[in-house]
Amino acid sequence: MQTDAGSGLAEDFLLAVYLDGHGRVPHYRTGLDFGLSAAMLMELALGGFIHTADGYIVADHGTDPRDPALREVLTRIRSSRTPRRTSEWVKTLSVNAHKQLSAGLITHGVLARAPRRLPLPTRPARRYNLLQPTRRDAALRSLNDPSDHSDHSDHSDHSTAPAAPAAPAAPAALAALAALASACEATPGGQEHSEPEAQLQSLSPTCRQILNAVTDCIQPLKYTWD
Questions:
Q1: Terminal CA-to-CA distance of the chain, rounded, Å?
Q2: Fewer Cβ in 10 A, N or C end of the chain?
Q3: What is the value of pTM for the model shown?
Q4: Residue 129: C-alpha distances to residues 108, 114, 208 (Å)
Q5: What tens digit of pLDDT does each residue of 45-87 get?
Q6: Beta bridge partner(s), residue 129
Q7: E-strand spans in 6-98?
Q8: How far apart are CA 18 and CA 30, in angstroms?
């Protein structure tokens, strides 16, 4: 799990949960797009860039995250003319979340766009080739063993942007990753992911509110799963 405040949680969610074993982008009705946008919001919260107040997302002023995708999200929040509730941001940001995050992973040589789309049961799916399998393996280890606080990241500095705020504590980021997978009812690696009370308690109030927003967004989709 990367612990840099500008990269880590959202990319790990994309690699370990969002994309399937074939690198395919999931169908909208799985709700994983909401999980991905929530991962971006949680990473901003863990980095001290946003917080919630009375159910609304509020951007804090100061330095920006180094990751371009997170900077774009933060800019959108700051430039919004009217305050938006947490669930509104989860829905709004879900539209292009995977394209924003995959762009960075492509630049860093982790993913590559596949030349053709593979069929899903209902439609063709965009597909990526995984060029660095160890990166996904590290993300899966972080997800399947949240008690493992070791740093599995590649410490190469891919950015020359100004330094971001202090990196979030690894346990909180790991707990957020596992909690999001559970909220999306995702089972990467064939493992079920529960939400132990201790893990949920380690999340900040802002992250817990984002997690609740994901559940609220996914709930209506469940009626279309069967």
A1: 34
A2: C
A3: 0.81
A4: 13, 6, 33
A5: 999 999 999 999 999 988 899 999 999 999 999 999 999 999 9
A6: 112
A7: 50-53, 56-59
A8: 10
Angle, vertex CA 42, rays to CA 40 and CA 48, nearest 5: 110
Beta-carbon contacts of 194 under 8 Å, excluding residues fewer than 6 positions away, are 182
**Token couple for 16:** 């370990």
The DSSP bridge partners found for residue 58 are 51
DSSP 17: I
How much is the pLDDT for 166? 35
> Is 183 in contact with 193 (CB distance < 8 Å)?
no
For the cut 60, the answer to whether the pLDDT of residue 165 exceeds it is no
Quote the DSSP letter at residue 166: P
Give pLDDT, residue 14. Answer: 94
> 3-state DSSP call for residue 112?
strand
The pLDDT value given to residue 55: 94
pLDDT at position 168 is 38
Query: pLDDT tens digit string along 13-23?
Result: 999 999 988 88
Rounded CA separation 160/163 (Å): 8
Token pair of 8, please? 């880590």
Contact 207, 176 (CB under 8 A): yes
| Residue 118 tokens, joined | 């593979």
> Is 210:83 a contact under the CB 8 Å cutoff?
no
Amino acid at 35: G
Quick check: 142 and 1 in contact, CB under 8 A?
yes
Length of the chain: 226
Say whether pLDDT at 194 is over 60: no
